[in-house]
Amino acid sequence: MTSRGFAPDHTIGPVPGTCPLCGTRRARRGCPAVGGQICAVCCGTKRLTEIACPSDCPWLATAREHPAAAVVRQQQRDIALLMRALRDFSERQSQLFLLISTFLVKYEAPELHAIVDADALEGLGALASTYETSIRGVIYEHRPQSLPAERLVNLLKPILAKAGEGGGTAFERDAAVVLRRVEETAREVRGADAANRRAFLDFLTRVITRRPETEAPPPGATESDERSRLILP
Questions:
Q1: pLDDT tens digits, residue range 99-110?
Q2: In this structure, what is the dihedral angle of CA atoms 23, 68, 80, 157, given to the nearest 10 degrees?
């Protein structure tokens, strides 16, 4: 004989009607991804992370149309910071900011270990110094000390070189300005969330979005950034 909440071997089992994900709260929300009912808390906190939500999920659509207050505040902070980062930029400098940001978002270390903000800061700083030295007429390659930062720079350099073909000193000056601005933005983000070693990279992930297939890239977009864009108000 078994009783409600107990399996035949008398161990505690899931109570009928509870959420199969947390096993504690009442399941009252239909989830097409799990093929059954789950609780509202699991729906809200595990959406698109632990739950592979289909694009036609009504709960996903509602969350996107009416995000939580905390999400709205985060979006507002991100937009304000992004606008400060892009202040007084020319069109080419804005495109370079997008190119570098997209590279950082997509970058994967060879051993599949994610980089942290410190790696990005060191690498971008070294590359900015190289451009600044070249502008003064001195050919000298500044190299970061850490291996993760050096690997990042070695992959970013040819991307920037291709983007700057024929640009000469003017392009190098723009690249140096943008790289220093990226550094400045990274330090500001890290200062607001010092406990998160990827605070800046997480910020870039939030403000870089994929361009719909039906939308054309902006004039002058490179192969590396033609399918991405910055989220602007």
A1: 999 999 999 887
A2: 30
